[in-house]
Amino acid sequence: MAQNKLHVAIISSPGMGHLVPVLLLANRLATHHHLHITILAVTTQTSPVESQLLNGSAHINLIKIPSPDISSLIHPDDAVVTRLAVIMREARNGIWSAISGMTCRPHVLVADLFSSESLPIADEFHMRKYVYVPCLARFLALTTYLHVLDKEVRGQYVDQMEPLRIPGCVPVQGQEVPDPMLDRDNRQYNEYVRMGINFTTLSNGILVNTWRDLDSASLDALKYNEILKSVVKVPVYDIGPLTRVVDPTGSEGNNVIEWLDMQPVESVIFVSFGSGGTLSAEQIAELAWGLELSQQKFVWVLRPPAGNTKDGAFFTSGSSVPCGPLDFLPEGFMNRTGTRGLITPLWAPQASILNHESVGGFLTHCGLNSIYEGILAGVPMIAWPLYAEQRLNATLLTDELQVAVRPTVLPAEEEVGREEIQKMVRSLMEGEEGKTMREKVKLLKESANHALMVHPINQCVSLSLVAKIITRIITYRSILIIIMLSCHKFGVLIIFIYQ
């Protein structure tokens, strides 16, 4: 690598839902902005799909950081957020060792949202430091403002009669808050509060995977509202929407794509709960009945039931463990739906499926990766939030953007019945409401594509601005070398310029 080429290191926490956005950012920086990129990926139980992603780019240097043993630091019932926070805290020594051992050390360190406690490492190696938040702007606003709410609000957030108010943002209803805020007595809540504080006190800026038309009020508040800015303290850069680009040859020979090739245009609803979402046996049965009663064509990525755990596949997504007999489906379901439905176990090439002309709807858990892939494919959605910040995302899709419908109950708390499911599916695929949502999501698709264009008008909403800002570090370092060689006595001035 040339010594004058900007080198960016990006830390990724475990889980497909975290690895994918890091890879998207890395690929964008490497291919569009010609930067040298190293990913420091903290790995747990790596699935074949995850391994394929980690080894799939020639533009990126990958260093795997072994996951530390945290068995003595957590309780078996601790939530995913707690586990991730502890894993990344204990992985700091491994991250430091990886950076210190590099021949050409990075100029910039980017930490994903669970890696913010590693940002002080950047100070030791004289690097700029950023947090990468692959979430909506409203999630970032809520997260960074949470330590203020923690002092102002008494009792549980879910029990509040009035919505939570964040300066300049759309108020957040108690039932929409991310999982760590559901119980203030749970350990994950304290981890989440700490995370928001770290974003604003340990970094030089925050990169958020969004664009202005998606959530303009929250983004404007983060940038221009004086009260919120006094809490956030560092610049916020909207760099999205970063999402997977469909490789036309990547799904050749895939049985799902071949099946879709035989279906009419926009006739199939794709059902998937992302890389980590799981359902109970009872809910799987109701969903199966709902799909059957709707009489619509479908592709369903199916995982075995996981009791009441909604994120049961988070650490094992894409695992090669066989799905086993489908005896948890209603008796005769496969025979009755065999000509108009296809079940694929555990994993499927989601972006390719959504962009297939036969797909006209998407039942999704509302993870941001899935939302963006749905929008960029121009496909309206059924919002079925399960965990993390997905309820917040679902509200944006249904109430504000109006590109999705959702059940009348929260799927994370109550079972969605077959009659409601078939009604939503029919409405999405055949009804006037579905047609209206399809028109709106296609307009949103145009907006998303426009935001990613590298054009002077879009500089404020594209990654190009961030790349230009951090590239200046190279120039500063060159100045430092010249000054250091010419006059040692200006050491104080050198430090000032560097900072």
Describe it.
This protein is an alpha/beta fold and 499 residues long. The protein has two domains: 7-242 and 453-493, Rossmann fold; 255-449, Glycogen Phosphorylase B (Rossmann fold), CATH 3.40.50. The chain is 42% helix and 13% strand. It has 19 helices and 13 strands. It has helices spanning 16-32, 48-54, 80-90, 92-100, 120-124, 137-152, 187-201, 216-224, 226-232, 255-260, 281-294, 333-337, 350-354, 368-376, 390-400, 418-429, 432-451, 463-486, 491-498, and strands spanning 7-12, 36-43, 60-66, 108-112, 128-133, 206-208, 236-238, 268-272, 297-302, 341-345, 359-364, 381-383, 404-405. It has a seven-stranded parallel beta sheet with strand order 3-2-1-4-5-6-7, with helices on both faces. Helix 11 (281-294) packs across helix 16. The longest helix is centred in the last third of the chain and has 24 residues, at 463-486. The protein is globular. Mean pLDDT is 89; it is low at 455-461 and 480-499.
Quickly list its features.
13 strands, Rossmann fold, glycosyltransferase, membrane, transmembrane, transmembrane helix, six-stranded parallel beta sheet, UDP_glucos_trans, 499 residues, 13% strand
Q: Total number of β-strand segments?
A: 13
CATH top level label of the largest domain: Alpha Beta
CATH superfamily of the largest domain: Glycogen Phosphorylase B
Profile the largest sheet.
7 strands, parallel
Shape: globular
CATH fold label of the largest domain = Rossmann fold
Strands of the biggest beta sheet: in what spatial order?
3-2-1-4-5-6-7
* Structural class by secondary-structure content: alpha/beta
CATH A-level architecture of the largest domain: 3-Layer(aba) Sandwich
DSSP helical segment count:
19
| Residue windows where pLDDT falls under 50 for at least 5 positions | 455-461, 480-499
